[in-house]
Inverse folding.
């Protein structure tokens, strides 16, 4: 595999390529010129550009790589002396301008009209030099010949990759709109060749547990090694994986990483083996917890060992075997119907889908088709897709509520009388919260506590793209209604809810967290549902919730603006 990521330096020395840089191209509808879909000719910069302003730009005339300041507006190519604006490429928003005839054309429709997936052009590489430093360089004829060799070798291999069609769906339609019809079309030929080499080798592993482990590892490497991945730049993990947007978003300037990897690679098979598999096995041998501490006066953490048993028990896939003494029971099945006895479980911990947002089964097929290709269509891999007509995720509020209630109804059956149901949730729309309240109360649960916690990573792309991003999840803790004490309530809903919500808002702010309006919404809605779930019948609770939408917005605004103060002892 590594030979396909080698290049020759100007002095004749061989070196490894860390990353290859590609750009999508579209043919101008007017003059048929190949148009590079750069929005900016600056393709590499530091994650903290103001502190480290050095960047790399490709010359639109000759393809040479020029080092310049990240915000430069006028540059002269060091190779051909062409003057160009590094910040302004042919693509802008949803349209592109042909540099030959100045025709402005819609990008997606132009690609869609071709009837095939978009084409790409290889233009740059990041090389790992023998002394351990890195250098950007333009693509050479040798690089193009090596890629052509990979294409030829791939064509000669037998059954090298899964050929599975992409089904239409909320999270797949964007890719389908760019003529991606099969999952393998999201990779280039070199990626498919190297993935097939690894897949064939994993398939030969005789031990099933190890075979599954390495198939899982390759599955994890897929999201960093495809033509939907992009370059984050220096000063951070270099590869922005394809699901950073939570959707299948075609990338105009994709990054091809070195699949096998080097010690300085990001998202590669070998580095993920060290960073994920080895770390997981080390943890299993000697588990630890994290304890807050201080180091040189600064907040830090330390690992505390010896609190938990080692992990490594034989797994069973049925409750009868578990009841006979097995330590771990793992089932992959419908959560609405289990083989667990009544009142046999102490706690149910879950993470339900977010109603109409990310449809996980639609994008999970990206990984699943490769797992099935490696391990064969047996057991849990019999179906060609992870999608199911009975899955809880559904854009229809009624269907989502009914199916979620059925899962929680089964949880109610298997929970002991004093058991707890706990899950995490957030949503920006009233329908999402209404469905959760309806499903919980239908399953005969009441909410006894709701704790806001930071959930999304600070660098998550959906946060940067949202006007009012949600940074928080709510841990919702529930008990069976038979365990709830009769609640005396004076009818002042907001007088009961807002002190608790205000206390949580101010605690987070005092800890230095900056809350968006939707963060405040999550906190307030959780406390509103908590109060309604233990004070009413399901019909009355839903009626109250529906009738308070206007007031809810008023209190969210007041809490966000800091107009509702919290006094200790008030909640």
């Amino acid at each position: 595999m590594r030979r396909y990521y080698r290049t020759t330096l100007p002095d004749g020395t061989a070196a490894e390529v860390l990353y290859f840089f590609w750009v999508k191209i579209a043919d101008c509808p007017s003059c048929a010129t190949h148009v590079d879909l750069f929005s900016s000719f600056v393709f590499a910069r530091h994650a903290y550009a103001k502190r480290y302003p050095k960047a790399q730009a490709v010359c639109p005339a000759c393809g040479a790589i020029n080092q310049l300041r990240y915000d430069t507006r006028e540059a002269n190519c060091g190779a051909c002396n062409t003057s160009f604006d590094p910040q302004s490429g042919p693509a802008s928003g949803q349209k592109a301008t042909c540099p030959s005839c100045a025709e402005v054309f819609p990008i997606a429709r132009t690609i869609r009209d071709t009837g095939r997936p978009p084409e790409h052009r290889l233009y740059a590489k990041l090389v790992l030099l023998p002394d351990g430093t890195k250098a950007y360089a333009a693509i050479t004829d040798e690089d193009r010949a090596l890629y052509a060799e990979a294409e030829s070798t791939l064509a000669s291999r037998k059954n090298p990759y899964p050929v599975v069609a992409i089904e239409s769906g909320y999270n797949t339609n964007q890719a389908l709109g760019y003529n991606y019809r099969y999952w393998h079309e999201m990779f280039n030929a070199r990626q498919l060749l190297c993935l097939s080499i690894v897949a064939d080798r994993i398939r030969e592993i005789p031990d099933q547990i190890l075979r599954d482990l390495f198939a899982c590892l390759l599955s994890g490497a897929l999201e960093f090694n495809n033509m939907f991945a992009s370059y984050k730049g220096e000063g951070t993990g270099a590869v922005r994986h394809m699901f950073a947007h939570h959707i299948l978003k075609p990338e105009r300037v994709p990054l091809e990483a070195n699949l096998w990897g080097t010690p300085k690679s990001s998202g590669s098979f070998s580095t993920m083996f060290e960073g994920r598999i080895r770390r997981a096995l080390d943890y299993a041998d000697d588990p630890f917890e994290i304890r807050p501490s201080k180091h040189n006066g600064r907040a830090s953490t330390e690992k505390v060992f010896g609190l938990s048993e080692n992990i490594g028990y034989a797994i069973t896939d049925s409750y009868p075997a578990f009841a006979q003494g097995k330590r771990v029971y793992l089932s992959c099945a419908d959560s609405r119907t289990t083989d667990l006895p009544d009142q046999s479980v102490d706690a149910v911990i879950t993470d339900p889908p977010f109603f109409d947002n990310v449809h996980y089964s639609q994008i999970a097929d990206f990984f699943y088709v490769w797992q099935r290709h490696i391990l064969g269509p047996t057991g849990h891999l019999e179906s060609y897709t992870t999608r199911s007509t009975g899955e809880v995720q559904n854009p229809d509020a009624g269907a989502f509520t009914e199916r979620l209630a059925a899962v929680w109804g089964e949880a109610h059956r298997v929970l002991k009388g004093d058991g707890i149901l706990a899950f995490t949730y957030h949503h920006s729309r009233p329908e999402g919260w209404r469905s959760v309240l309806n499903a919980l109360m239908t399953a005969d649960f009441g909410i006894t506590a709701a704790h806001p916690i930071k959930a999304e990573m600070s660098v998550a792309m959906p946060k940067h793209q949202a006007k009012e991003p949600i940074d928080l999840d709510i841990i919702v803790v529930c008990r069976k209604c038979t365990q709830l004490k009769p609640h005396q309530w004076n009818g002042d809903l907001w007088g009961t809810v807002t002190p608790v919500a205000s206390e949580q808002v101010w605690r987070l702010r005092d800890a230095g967290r900056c809350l968006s309006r939707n963060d405040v919404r999550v906190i307030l809605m959780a406390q509103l549902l908590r109060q309604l779930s233990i004070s009413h019948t399901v019909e009355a609770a839903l009626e109250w919730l529906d009738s308070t939408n206007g007031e809810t917005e008023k209190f969210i605004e007041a809490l966000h603006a800091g107009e509702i103060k919290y006094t200790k002892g008030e909640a």
Notes: Residues 397-414 form the longest helix (18 residues).
